[in-house]
User: Which sequence fits this backbone?
């Protein structure tokens, strides 16, 4: 399988060189989607050999950055796409393990809650609570058997990406991917990945930093995606 490895990046000057050095040990073809970074990220990327960079002229959002990666995978001669974040929260040495199940599945999702790698690591309480709630929606509404709704470390067959339509520009976009996966009966599996939270504050930005508002936003995007896909089961505790 010919795999493209794509990394969405927004103001990651601190992490980009060590992350790309590690990724280049486990991935042949690397695409960085620079989502309108305003720090030194563009200058740093210009001096990294052997990678392709696509830059948004302004910050469009995590979801928009993933869509740019999806489009690049579909335009190119690729069979699969691996995505991972550029903030040190994903372990590049696991890229082959995330990609390998594409031989049998359309989508492979890393899960930080399948296996405990480091018991001293714990997610911020609000993030964990929201992840548990949204994962419950996915399993109850779409009959998945998932343990982590939001891990950005994933792999996709391009044949699956061709069927996936998303709209949200931000952090709710992965929910649309799950709904599309159900709508197109795509096969999904999870691979355990370490839960890594570094001692740096990472914001969703704006209203989404409020957990209640964030969960309400996710519910709105999820319901709209269910409606668009004609998948809205009623009365089943579904979101
Ligand atoms: N915060 C943020 N990250 C973005 C954006 N666009 C792309 N990214 C990148 O998307 C990845 C995930 O972002 P992050 O904030 O770590 O998400 P989280 O770990 O799910 O909270 C990182 O590599 C970011 O650099 C954006 O608009 N905002
Ligand atoms: Mg992160």
Assistant:
């Amino acid at each position: 399988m010919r795999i493209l490895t794509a990394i969405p990046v927004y103001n990651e000057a601190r992490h980009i060189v060590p992350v790309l050095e590690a990724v280049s040990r486990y991935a042949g073809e690397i695409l960085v989607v620079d989502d309108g970074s305003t720090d030194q990220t563009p200058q740093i990327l210009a001096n990294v050999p052997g990678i392709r960079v696509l830059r948004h002229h302004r910050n469009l959002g995590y979801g928009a950055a993933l869509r740019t990666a999806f489009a690049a995978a579909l335009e190119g001669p690729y069979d699969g796409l691996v995505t991972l974040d550029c903030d040190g929260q994903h372990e590049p040495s696991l890229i082959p393990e995330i990609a390998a199940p594409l031989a049998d599945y359309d989508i492979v999702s890393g899960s930080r809650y399948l296996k405990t790698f480091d018991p001293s690591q714990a997610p911020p309480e609000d993030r964990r609570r929201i992840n548990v709630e949204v994962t419950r929606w996915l399993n109850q509404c779409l009959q998945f058997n998932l343990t982590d709704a939001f891990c950005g470390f994933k792999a996709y067959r391009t044949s699956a990406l061709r069927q996936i339509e998303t709209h949200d520009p931000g952090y709710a976009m992965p929910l649309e991917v799950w709904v599309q996966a159900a709508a197109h009966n795509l096969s999904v599996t999870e691979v355990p990945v370490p839960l890594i939270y570094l001692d740096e504050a990472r914001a969703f930005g704006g209203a989404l930093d409020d957990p209640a508002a964030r969960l309400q936003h996710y519910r709105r995007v999820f319901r709209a995606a269910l409606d668009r896909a004609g998948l809205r089961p009623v009365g089943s505790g579904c979101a």
About this structure: Residues 8-10, 12, 35, 59, 61-62, 65, 85-87, 89, 150, 152, 202 surround guanosine-5'-diphosphate (ligand 1) (CB under 6 Å). The chain has a mean pLDDT of 95.
